[in-house]
Amino acid sequence: MARPDWDDYFMKIAEDVATRSTCIRRSVGAIIVKDKRILSTGYNGAPANIAHCTEETCLRTMYNVPSGERHELCRGLHAEQNAIIQAALHGASIKDATVYITHQPCSICTKMLINSGIKKIICRSAYNDRFAAELIAESGITLIILDENR
Fold first, then answer.
1. What is the DSSP secondary-structure string of 9-70?
2. Beta-carbon contacts of residue 94 (< 8 Å; ≥ 6 apart)
3. Is 148 a residue of the active site?
4. DSSP character for 104?
5. 3-class secondary-structure state, position 109
6. CA dihedral (70, 76, 80, 86) positive or negative
7. Which has the closest alpha carbon to 83: 56, 60, 101?
8. Which among 55, 80, 138, 148 is annotated as catalytic?
9. Which has fewest Cβ within 10 Å: 41, 49, 118, 123?
């Protein structure tokens, strides 16, 4: 078995983190890495001490919200948001770090990653959010989508 390169190694860990997701629509995992060290992890789901979504309680299902729209109509936080929050809670600076995410971030998460000082975003798969792509391009953050490079 071939030894994985660093990007494959960290993406596999992000995929494992996604298995903790409590979202009924999509499981997403994120890890923040600096100098080949994991600083923080996050997965998508309801905040601590808040009930997880079910088919009956998912706001996005109840209101028939299409993917990529109206992110505020959701009980959950995105994986990137949780990774940033966990880093802040535990005093880990993520300035100049890389984030590995199973899916490309939405525009809200992209803005948070820009302001947190992230310098590189590596995703497994693309997400159709034109505004997020424009923000990344303008910010100077490097974006790598692994599935496009294989």
1. HHHHHHHHHHTT---SS---EEEEEETTEEEEEEE-BPPTTSPPP-TTT-HHHHTTPPTTS-
2. 32, 34, 39, 40, 84, 87, 116, 117, 118
3. no
4. -
5. helix
6. positive
7. 101
8. 80
9. 49
| CA separation for the pair 103, 85 (Å, rounded) | 18
Span 61-112, pLDDT tens digits? 878 888 777 877 788 899 999 999 999 999 999 999 999 999 999 999 999 9
Please report where in the chains the tokens 């109206």 appear, as a residue: 70
| Residue type at 22 in one-letter notation | T
Q: Which amino acid is it at 2?
A: A
Q: How many CA atoms lie within 13 A of 66 on its CB side?
A: 4
What is the structure's pLDDT at 70? 81
Confirm whether pTM is higher than 0.90.
yes
Tell me the pLDDT of the chain averaged across its residues. 92
Secondary structure class of 5 (helix, strand, coil): coil
